[in-house]
Specification:
globular, single chain, five-stranded parallel beta sheet, 173 residues, alpha/beta, two-stranded antiparallel sheet
């Protein structure tokens, strides 16, 4: 890889395709949380199994991908925070809600390509120390990886030593 990511590993069990794309879309964009609940429960079970199998190590904290405050008000919730809190409860790992925050507004990533997403996110995250050594960034879907790359870089620069990415799904390809 010419530009390796700042995160060490990822745990993303599903592809963002039928029927998951519809379930996540209804949960995320229409606020129909009943579509997210089974995915989060299954995800927590898969993380627990991977931990017991030695495939992943438990982080000290879960860090939900921060959402722009205005977008959060419009949607009514931050899906990454919702996912992190559900997983945290099942795995007994704390959520570090205040560790990272967005410091400026950006265009929606939804219609941007990988390069535009990375440029769009430069300098958008601020890390508030102290930073635990072992962190898992939690998000719903990893598309190009721009958000988790920029977020993990900020966390790495602030002192994180081991950074995992946990997400429900990734786009095929």
């Amino acid at each position: 890889m010419k530009h390796p990511p700042a995160f060490d590993s990822s745990f993303i069990p599903w592809r963002y395709q039928y029927p998951l794309d519809g379930m996540i879309g209804r949960y995320k964009y229409r606020g129909q949380r009943k579509f997210g609940r089974p995915l989060m429960a299954d995800f927590a079970d898969l993380v627990q199994k991977a931990r017991l199998d030695g495939a992943i190590a438990m982080p000290e904290v879960l860090v939900p991908a921060p959402m722009d405050a205005r977008r959060r008000r419009q949607r009514g919730f931050n899906q990454a925070q919702d996912i992190a809190e559900t997983i945290a409860s099942a795995l007994d790992v704390p959520v570090a809600n205040g560790l990272v925050r967005r410091i400026r507004r950006v265009r929606s990533q939804r219609e941007l390509n990988r390069e535009a997403r990375l440029a769009n996110l430069r300098g958008v995250f601020e890390v508030i120390p102290p930073v635990p050594e072992r962190i898992a960034i939690v998000d719903d879907v990893v598309t190009t990886g721009a958000t988790v790359r920029v977020l993990s870089s900020a966390l790495r620069e602030a002192g994180a030593r081991n950074i995992q990415v946990w997400a429900l799904a990734r786009t095929p390809g």
